[in-house]
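Section 5.1 Outputs to date
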Amino acid sequence: MLNKAMIIGRLGRDPELKYTQSGMPVTTLTVATDESYMDRDGNRVDRTEWHRVSVFQKAAENCAQYLSKGSLVYVEGRIQTRKWQDQQGQDRYSTDIVANTVRFLDRKSDRVNSGDEYTPPAPRTTKNMQNNQQMEDYGSPFPSEASDMDDTPF
């Protein structure tokens, strides 16, 4: 079975860092992804989807320290649905992404705290360790942020 989620989006608010009873750090991110398309009448329709992301351990502390509202992130993880009861005894559900990778995509100069010297580490893969390759910049992940992309036919 496969349970994998990958999103690129912007934080809708500052990360929320908490600690479990055992002292493990957990950060909650609220990430917005967007898409746009043309409807039947030729009008541009923008749609935003909000994702709740849970990050654990050292990655949680890094996210809380170096990310802020508006930060661009790549998140990879698994989808998990939790069930609980509200104050009225009604069953409630929440679907989250439990992250195993959070990559900071903003350039250092774009960050709110541009004074910090933190550089997120490159992913640890055999290929990157052997070839010591740098990640390529593919430009903006959203067509709405790229120049001259409004007329893209797809």
